[in-house]
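Lab notebook: predicted structure, single chain.

Context: the supervisor wants predicted structures on file for every construct in the current expression panel, including those that have not yet been purified. This is the next one on the list. No modifications to the sequence; it matches the entry in the shared construct table.
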Amino acid sequence: MMAVILVIDDDEHVQAVLRGILEEAGYMVVVASNGRQGLQQFRREPADLVLLDIFMPELDGLETLVELHREYPAAKVIAISGGGMECDFSFFECARVLGAHSALPKPLDREQLLLIVGLMLRGVSPDTDSSKCDSPG
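Prediction complete. Output recorded below exactly as produced.
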């Protein structure tokens, strides 16, 4: 059976890029544009894995993560964020404390994303600290 990945991100370009990468790798992808929609989608059809943007309108990623883990403690979540030049990793640490299994900075590295997704879907916790911010250039 094909794994289902729920992408919760308010940026339509990010949704499209993630959908392309993940579908090409053989996953079924469902998208939601904010935390509220993402929670509603997960309640209708729980996904095998959630990619969750930290900064979103309506219900941000950290609030969504708290609610998701309150209702579904076993949900597997990768927090994602585009911190850019002002990377503040305290948000990634908050996400981990609140239940995210891994954290990835935007723009996402295709190989790293697929490696971590594959590990998590097999029940292996990623050992690497993925929240490193690359310096520009």
